[in-house]
């Protein structure tokens, strides 16, 4: 299309375009255009290729630097152990920096894109992302209101952020708050309670509302739909088997926590793996991912582990209330070319292996494969994998019971078929609760499925599993803190602090600087200027000092006797003493 031209009134007759004629400041625009044309002629006199080559080099240098910068700043793992350390009063540099947000999102997206190959989730990273945003919004609020920084308010936002992180993954606000209380905080103030519930409810509501807007759901429903019987979901004798399932999950969790922690230590001290992790993290990640992908290849061993299912489909299939063992006792369903959304349980069946064989093989393989996956230095969550592992454990027990009692267990003259899906739900809550040392996983199971018919047996299974796990092993997150050597007070297993015959007087520093009421001003100035202390707190307590450090997030405290300062205790000294108590050094 030809450009329209015209004559300006009073001009010499030279035509101009209508854009110049009607545009603002035509003379200035023509001058700028002329200047740019002159500059183009001068610059491109040496050849325009050189400038494009220079631009290419500069851009690639910027991209290279940015990638290196991001890789250095990516916070690996779940992030919950570091958050526990921060809430205990220790400052970790750059952990809550909003600049890490984009790198964490990109890394987590890549992790989730692998599906069930690497078998990792997103709960921990979502908690980290939520806490990052909470910390950033807290700083924005402080600058907006002009108030000074308040550490107590900052911790309130962080705890609420942790609750939101869990709630937005499972659409479970109640268990999200309780999980943040149990796992993230050593002590929880009542003032934070309603704040966490408010934020978690808003997050869970929006998460499910988006599913409705995206036409995935007709209305706001639970994340995983189940069809358990409501009138008689289980018979009274089954309570015993649910408790046994809890004990099995507790024993398995102890084995898993021990092996996972020991393998992490091995990877750190082994000369080959430690060198790879120090200099070639992408290579280590690629080798580990290649091994896991080779094993889970569907036409190969993956055929016996339902590897074609996603992690969400794993749960959907395991929560099925029908007995697969009874359904395949007299028939052999075909293995579809693609997973059937209406019959996902077909992926768990193999004519030579049977349902019991595939579930057992899945548990044996995923036990060590999940441990290996936790060593890969990528943003990933570890709660959902252990939740699925527990569901598979419960499913196996439920299938065995349904096969042993095909008509159900007789109770009061009536029989009701056993629902293996109920055992899968109980196993998921029990094993994940034992690994994380939390009871809120029982409530999470109810919120995820929208049914509470198995409330009593699931809670009993979770309590049994926790009783065993907490007696013998630290939680998954505490174990990670131990392996990473994060600055966190060691865990005292014994509930009675008085059972340890070590008191503050045995290890406190008795050489301290004090200020008396009647001290002259000159001496006060001399004392203050000769020390680096910013404040002089006085604490009078007859307790081993552990509760004070843990509850008040202290770094040091002073010990007094009848108003007289007799010593001081630092956080480092207390940590050393507790470590010697829990892990006594070998005699020389």
TrEMBL record:
SUPFAM superfamilies, per the entry: CBS-domain pair, Clc chloride channel
Membrane disposition: Multi-pass membrane protein
GO molecular function: voltage-gated chloride channel activity
Family matches, as InterPro entries: CBS_dom_sf, Cl-channel_core, Cl_channel_volt-gated, ClC
Compartments, as annotated in UniProt: Membrane
Catalytic reaction list: chloride(in) = chloride(out); iodide(out) = iodide(in); bromide(in) = bromide(out); nitrate(in) = nitrate(out)
GO cellular component: chloride channel complex; plasma membrane
Keywords per UniProt: CBS domain, Chloride, Chloride channel, Ion channel, Ion transport, Membrane, Repeat, Transmembrane, Transmembrane helix, Transport
Pfam families given in the database record: Voltage_CLC (PF00654)
Transmembrane segments: 50-71, 157-181, 193-213, 234-258, 283-301, 422-446, 452-469
UniProt superkingdom: Eukaryota
Principal location: membrane
Name by which UniProt lists this protein: Chloride channel protein ClC-Ka
Organism: Pteropus vampyrus
Name of the gene this protein is made from: CLCNKA
């Amino acid at each position: 299309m030809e450009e329209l031209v015209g004559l300006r009134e009073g001009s010499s007759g030279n035509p101009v375009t209508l854009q110049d004629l009607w545009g603002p400041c035509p003379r200035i625009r023509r001058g700028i255009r002329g200047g740019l044309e002159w500059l183009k002629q001068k610059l491109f006199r040496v050849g325009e290729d050189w400038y494009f080559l220079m631009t290419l080099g500069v851009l690639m240098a910027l991209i290279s630097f940015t990638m290196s910068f991001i890789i250095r700043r990516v916070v690996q793992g779940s992030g919950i152990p570091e958050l526990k350390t921060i809430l205990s009063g220790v400052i970790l540099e750059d952990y809550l920096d909003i600049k890490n947000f984009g790198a964490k999102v990109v890394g987590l997206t890549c992790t989730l894109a692998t599906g069930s190959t690497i078998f990792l989730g997103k709960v921990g990273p979502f908690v980290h992302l939520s806490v990052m945003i909470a910390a950033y919004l807290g700083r924005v609020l402080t600058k907006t209101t002009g108030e000074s920084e308040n550490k107590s308010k900052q911790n309130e936002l962080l705890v609420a952020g942790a609750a939101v992180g869990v709630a937005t993954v499972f659409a479970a606000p109640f268990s999200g708050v309780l999980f943040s209380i149990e796992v993230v905080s050593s002590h929880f103030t009542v003032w934070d309670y309603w704040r966490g519930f408010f934020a978690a409810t808003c997050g869970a509501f929006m998460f499910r509302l988006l599913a409705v807007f995206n036409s995935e759901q007709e209305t706001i429903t639970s994340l995983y739909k189940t069809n358990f019987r409501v009138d008689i979901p289980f018979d009274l004798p089954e309570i015993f088997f649910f408790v046994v399932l809890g004990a099995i999950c507790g024993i398995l969790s102890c084995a898993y926590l021990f092996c996972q922690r020991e393998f992490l230590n091995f990877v750190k001290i082994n000369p080959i793996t430690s060198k790879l992790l120090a200099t070639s993290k992408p290579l280590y990640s690629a080798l580990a991912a290649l091994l896991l992908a080779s094993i889970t290849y569907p036409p190969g061993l993956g055929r016996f582990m339902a590897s074609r299912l996603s992690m969400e489909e794993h749960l959907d299939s395991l929560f099925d209330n029908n007995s697969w063992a009874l359904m395949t006792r007299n028939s052999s369903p075909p293995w579809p070319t693609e997973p059937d959304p209406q019959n996902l349980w077909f992926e768990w069946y193999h004519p030579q292996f049977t349902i019991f064989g595939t579930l057992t093989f899945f548990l044996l393989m995923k036990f060590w494969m999940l441990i290996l996956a936790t060593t890969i230095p990528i943003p990933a969550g570890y709660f959902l994998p252990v939740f699925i592992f527990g569901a598979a454990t419960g499913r196996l027990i439920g299938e065995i019971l349904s096969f042993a009692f095909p008509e159900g267990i007789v109770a009061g003259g009536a029989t009701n078929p056993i629902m293996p899906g109920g055992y899968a739900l109980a196993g998921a809550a029990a094993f994940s609760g034992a690994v994380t040392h939390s009871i809120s996983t029982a409530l999470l199971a109810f919120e995820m499925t929208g049914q509470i018919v198995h409330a009593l047996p699931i809670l009993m299974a979770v309590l049994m599993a926790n009783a065993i796990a907490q007696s013998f092993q630290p939680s998954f997150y505490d174990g990670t803190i131990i392996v990473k050597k994060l600055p966190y007070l060691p865990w005292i297993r014994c509930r009675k602090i008085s059972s340890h015959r070590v008191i503050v007087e045995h290890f406190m520093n008795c050489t301290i600087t004090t200020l008396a009421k009647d001290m002259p001003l000159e001496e006060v100035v001399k004392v203050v200027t000769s020390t680096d202390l910013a404040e002089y707190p006085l604490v009078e307590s007859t307790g081993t000092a552990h509760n004070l450090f843990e509850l008040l997030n202290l770094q040091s405290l002073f010990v007094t006797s009848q108003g007289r300062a007799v010593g001081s205790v630092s956080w480092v000294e207390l940590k050393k003493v507790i470590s010697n108590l829990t892990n006594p050094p070998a005699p020389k």
